[in-house]
Structures are given as structure tokens and as C-alpha cells.
Specification:
The chain is of the alpha+beta class. Helices cover 71% and strands 12% of the residues. The protein has a 3-stranded antiparallel β-sheet. A hairpin with a 2-residue loop joins strand 2 and strand 3. Helix 3 crosses helix 4. It is globular, with a radius of gyration of 17 Å.
């Protein structure tokens, strides 16, 4: 049997390839779908929060947001009392793009798990959540050791 690392990497790559192909048809680039997903869920956030949630470097998110702003998908503005951070929210055009991407995510996820029962999907999600928690905890412990 293949290693866990390989299976996680391969399944992620295969699903990402399909999702990004559909995103491209909507005129979106590789980092934009997950930013749209985040903003659809949370409405507004600063760049640092978006980067952390999406597991992307803050500078990379800045580039993604700049392209999204130029495309009319997001609006970046200062909040009163906080001139240092730009807060990002979806425009109407961005809202529509995010909703289309949610349809893509749902469709591709359904295809990906079509051979699994509902219970197996729930079990898989729970295991992946635990795995993410373990990896995050391990990263925190390593940072405190330094």
C-alpha cells in the first residue's frame, strides 16, 4: 500500500486539478477560489487572516487580492481606527463568482466521494480534521522549541 503522504498528496493534486480547470473557465486563477470560498463564508477579513485560513503566504495573498481587486471581485478598504490593515470583502461580481465556485466544489467533491457511503465520508472528514489538528499542534510545539 502507498504511504499516507503519497495518498494525501495525490488525492489533493487530482481534486485540485479538476477544481482549477473549472475555475479557469470562470476566469479565475489558482489562488482565487479558496479566497472566494473564505470570503463567502466570513464576509470580511484582513489579509493576514485570509492567508492563515487559506494556508497561503501573506505576500502571495496580497498578489492574489490585487488581481481580484482589478477584476472587480473584491473590495479592499481601511476600517475606521485601523489604518494599517486593509479589510477585504466581496463585490457583487465576487459574490456571484464565489457562488459559482461553491457549485464547482460541491460537484467535484461529490464525484470524488461517489464510491463512498455517507458514513465513510463522515469518517474521512473526522479523520482529516484530526490529522490537521495533529499537524497544527506539532507545528506549534516546534515553534516554541526554537
Amino acid at each position: 500500500m502507498e504511504s499516507l503522504h503519497y495518498l494525501l498528496m495525490k488525492s489533493h493534486a487530482m481534486l485540485s486539478k479538476k477544481v482549477l480547470s473549472e475555475a479557469g473557465k470562470l476566469g479565475l486563477t489558482s489562488g482565487q477560489p479558496k479566497v472566494l470560498d473564505f470570503l463567502l463564508k466570513y464576509q470580511e477579513a484582513d489579509q493576514k487572516t485570509i492567508a492563515a485560513y487559506c494556508e497561503i503566504e501573506q505576500a502571495t495573498v496580497g498578489s492574489i487580492l490585487l488581481r481580484m481587486e482589478k477584476a472587480g471581485l473584491v473590495l479592499r478598504r481601511n476600517r475606521e481606527g485601523n489604518r494599517r490593515s486593509l479589510y477585504v470583502s466581496l463585490t457583487d461580481k465576487g459574490q456571484k463568482a464565489a457562488e459559482k465556485m461553491m457549485d464547482v466544489f460541491r460537484r467535484e467533491e461529490e464525484k470524488a466521494v461517489s464510491g463512498l457511503s455517507t458514513e465513510e465520508v463522515d469518517t474521512l472528514k473526522n479523520i482529516l480534521l484530526k490529522l490537521c489538528g495533529s499537524i497544527e499542534q506539532s507545528s506549534k510545539e516546534k515553534r516554541t522549541e526554537l
